[in-house]
Write a structure and sequence with these properties.
heterodimer, A: about 100 residues, mainly alpha, two-stranded antiparallel sheet, 2 strands, B: about 325 residues, 11 helices, about 75% helix
Amino acid sequence: MAEDPLTGGRYAEPSVLILTSLASGPKHGYALIQDIRGFAGVDLGPGTLYGALSRLESQQLIRPLRAEARRRPYEITQAGADALEKHLTVLARIARIGRQRLAAS
Amino acid sequence: MIARPNSDAPSLGWLIRVLLACYPRAWRERYDGEVRALLGELRDSGTSRLSLVLDLGLGVADAWLRPIGFEQEDAGRDATNRFIATTGWGLLLFVFAAAGFAKMTEYPEFVAAAHRHVVVGLCFDVLLASAVAAGAVMALATLPAVVALLRWDRGRSRTTLLCLGVAPLSVGAVVAAALVARSVAVSNHPHSATNVAAFLGLAGITVLAGVCTTVALTWVATRIPETRSVVVTRRIAMGGLAFCTAAATLAVTGWAVGLAFTDPSLLQEDNGLLSSPAIPTVASIVAQLALAAVLCARSGWNAIRSPLAAPVDQAQLPTRRSAK
């Protein structure tokens, strides 16, 4: 069975960061790295980035667009947006509960 | 078609180029150009080369260990890669076992025993014939693959030629080292420091040659176009190779059993490889040969039963003009 790219394996976190980045519009590899560094402070290497991109693409959570001078942009699909929304809802719940418990302790 | 670096592609370090070449072919066909462009931009932005190398190394391992999506669509190519790996291990075991047996039986006592007893001598001959036949079968199976590969790669890079040259160079280096070790062994006690040093040197060169050959041949093997002649000869060759390795296993077993009945004293001394005990040495050689036979038989069975990639005609392969 195919692994959920947002929750399983070493590409889970990069996949969430990529989908979050693509949620604001299509980007190619270097733009993704820059954007993710900007909003998350995480540096994705090329092996990690394309490992995650290939998994997201195979799950049809993103789709490639026409290449521009060897740089191919990717955009999030509706299935990708839904998966990200669901994942962020879970994260938000975890964050809320975590804060409540920290405050109570 | 595998994406190739354009003339305006950024200059990447050789280690990064090697790592990119180590990705599975399906991955390279899909992402190589994009990643090269990205690496150029990352290099210009001052990203540490060490971190790029480490990250790409992990990516390569992951692409091979956990292939996904588009890579799984290419089931025929995966079957080919499994076939190459299984056959490679089988051949490696066969070569090691045969070399070990040849080294062990080079002494006059063993040669004399082969002349005195028909069964022992016959087993010797069967083993020799098996080794020659296995070599011929592999040469026959390799020829169409090399022709198809050179035709596909013609005029585009020298890497294929260089990689193809690594195997004979490695074999030459190992043979030269073996000759030196043998000349040292003749004039020294088997367990002397000089002899041990010569053996360790030979072992080191063999391992180095093996690693270089494996890397080069893996590079080559993952690029062989699945032409009709390549697929057909490979299937025929695997049957022959399985037969040869099985015959060699039986020959060494028969040789040891024959010797146990006719000249048991030869198996009771330190007459094994490098003056080790004879019986464990023979048992190890038989085990290696048996495993080689199983691997080759498995390869042959899979090659016949599993559909490989849809065979293409040689004429359909991209040429230098159409490949651009």
